[in-house]
Amino acid sequence: MAKLVYGGNVTFNMTNDLLVSVQRVMEIKFADSQGFWFEHEGQGAWFHPSIPVLIQYDDDKPIRYSRERTSNLADDADGLLGVSLGPNSVLARMEIVDPDWEKPVDSEGDTSGN
Asked: Which residues form the DUF7882 domain (predicted)?
């Protein structure tokens, strides 16, 4: 597991793919000197640019970045409740899929829409 250590005493463990999205949201918010609430698997903290953060990825494998996940997390970070991820969170479990995966299929099995 990859980990994010916040303030030297709070550690959040997550997949590389999720961590890269959280890191990007932090970059966006911190660039504007904004903080946000972050909760992952029952542990939470107020993330603020004045608090040190250590990000460690668990291996050298390529990381699968999801713009959709990052966008959804950024929207949550802008909200009153902040980012809340857990084992049942849709965003935490979001996989990167083939773009054709979501094409509607009619009763004949046709994905062309004709």
From this structure: 1-85
In order, the DSSP letters of 41-72 are TTEEEEE-TTS-EEEE-SSSSPP---HHHHHH
Spell out the residues 6+ positions from residue 41 whose beta carbon is closer than 8 angstroms to its own.
12, 13, 85, 86, 87
Q: What is the pLDDT of residues 17-76, one digit of tens each?
A: 999 999 999 999 999 999 999 999 888 999 999 999 999 998 877 788 899 999 999 999
Question: Please, which residues bridge with residue 12 across strands?
Answer: 4
Which whole-number Å values give the CA distances from 32 to 23, 29, 36, in the listed order? 15, 6, 12
Domain positions in the chain are 2-102
Cα atoms in the 13 Å half-sphere on the side-chain side of 111: 6
Taking CA atoms, 4 is separated from 38, 50, 54, 97, in Å, by 12, 16, 6, 25
Overall pTM > 0.90: no
